[in-house]
Design goal:
The chain is α+β, with helices and mostly antiparallel strands and 269 residues long. It has a domain of 167 residues. Helices cover 44% and strands 18% of the residues. The protein is built from eleven helices and eight strands.
Length: 269
């Protein structure tokens, strides 16, 4: 990293080190996912992107699920450090909605949960996202974690020097009755990134090398790449991955065109 820093100019350092906080903080999500209704903050209904629980399953069933949320949040708090458990007791559950996941997470469940502190002006938006068993377990056996979300959280703690302090996990059944492991985190927890779009090719290469040195097991990565030219290996992998994505997308479009995809009903995930 020191080598990367020495190669950069003062201007590049300022641009590369400047976090893009304005694009990735919770207040932006608050303005998109909630609104004030009769003086109280509520999660918006914007199907199919986000659907509040009362719209999803009806008001009667929604009340049953809302009553369970306090116990579920206590279960989540047990995965946090004692000092953070104390912090989270200052917030109460105020709403839950099913949320559409991103492209990389298609097929898993995700909810937005709104917590309130002292009043409606003290909100905290949380993401509750399904965690599935590692794909490596098919070949290497069980991971050793009884909760798949705990495995995800522990992995993030290993890889990130400073991550979301409220990252935790729980196991529960959703509105559709599907029981699964879920990890819980803040929505947009002030993440920042280096300004790679302003780097010179040499600086970008140095930045990549520095990231590689700081991330993962360098011996395992080198072994995975084999004894050939690493650049060629990575290029071939990227090309094969792109072809797989294009093939999957073509298969999805063909299935949709022939009506082979099941139609979702309200309450389905």
């Amino acid at each position: 990293m020191a080598h990367f820093w020495r190669r950069s100019t003062a201007g590049m350092r300022r641009r590369s080190a400047r976090p893009r906080l304005k694009l990735k903080h919770g207040l932006e999500e608050l303005s998109k996912l909630t609104r004030l209704v009769d003086g109280k903050r509520r999660l918006v209904s914007d199907p199919p992107l986000i659907i509040p629980i009362d719209v999803l399953v009806g008001k009667a069933d929604a009340r049953k699920h809302e009553q369970r949320m306090s116990d579920l949040m206590k279960a989540y708090q047990e995965s946090l450090a004692p000092s953070l458990r104390s912090l989270m007791t200052r917030f109460r559950h105020a709403g839950i909605a099913r949320k559409v996941v991103g492209v990389r997470s298609v097929g898993i469940r995700e909810c937005a949960v709104m917590l309130l502190g002292r009043d409606d002006g003290d909100p905290l938006l949380m993401k509750v996202k399904e965690a599935q068993p590692s794909v490596l377990e098919t070949y290497l056996g069980p991971s050793g974690y009884t909760n798949a979300a705990e495995r995800v959280v522990e992995g993030e703690w290993l890889m990130q020097a400073g991550g979301d302090i409220l990252l935790g996990w729980l196991r529960c059944a959703g509105p559709d009755g599907h029981e699964a492991d879920y990890y819980v985190r803040q929505m947009r927890d002030w993440k920042g990134s280096a300004g790679v779009d302003s780097m010179t090719p040499q600086l970008l290469a140095d930045y990549g090398r520095s990231s590689g040195l700081l991330t993962g097991d360098r011996i395992a990565i080198a072994s995975y790449l084999g004894s050939g030219d690493a650049d060629i290996t990575l290029t071939r992998f990227a090309g094969a991955y792109a072809e797989q994505n294009e093939g999957d997308y073509a298969a999805l479009r063909a299935a949709a065109a022939s009506n082979r995809l099941p139609r979702l009903k309200p309450g389905d995930s």
